Amino acid sequence: MHDQTPSSHPARPHRLAFVLGSGGVRSIAGLGIAERLAREGIRFDLVVGCSSGALFGAQIAKGMHGESALRLATTLWSAELTEQRRWRSYLQLIVPKLAGFGAGFSLRDDRLIVQRITRAFGGDRLEELPTPMRVAATEAATGWPVVLSHGSVVDALRASMAVPILFPGVVIDGRMLVDGVLSDPLPIAAASDARVVVSLGFHGSMPRRVDRLSRLVAQTSTTLINNLMQARTEAAQAGGQKVITVELDLDRRVGLWETSAMPYLFDAGWRAAEARLLDIVAALEGAQAPQPQLDFID
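Structure tokens predicted for NTE family protein (298 residues):
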């Protein structure tokens, strides 16, 4: 399995990469961003995605766009996909030893997810998509980030979206992989060989009040994810990489599974790309210019 970050000395650096972080249905704004840039003749030559960002990023890498892409997205991301219960899981919780509780435990069955993703991407492979793609996941046993750059698109997407406890992990090359958000919610490091990176990430909202356990857990996990995402962005910029952060200007809250908001989010992505268009063009022009040689004096 091809994992971790790409070589620090790539033979042919990518000119422009698009990194889509985890963000639920909001990640579909990436389709609007790609569409707006394509209008200017700007196309990505590498796509990197994590969790829902990987799902919608795969549509971009496959060359899907417009209304057909939006229609397909409604089948790939919908609340019904999370409602396929594994009744055996309740028995595993009550009598774990007898029912065989283990690392592969999940509350939900992912067969419907597999069916939908397979219908969309079939036998596609990451390295053979019209635009090469890398997918961020997490090795369950160690917690280390894993970047999939070769192999089945379906398996990679399943792994990147496999939220622990909720969905089962996916075994790829002998290792159990789960949701990429646990180790790298905005995997800019997976595009370290790109001259310019356009990133679409989402900071989670903190609970307004902590009056129950679930909200305390949400506060803790959101803090960890937000800080990890910020650290990844700052590390890339500190290393000299040109990172153009695209932020959505939303005038209302959008639910995690609110598929009816997809056209609204697509348009928000279009507007967000337009707002950063000059910065993206300038970054690309700067990346093409000869880099000055610096002399260091001891």
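The first strand starts at residue 14 and ends at 20.
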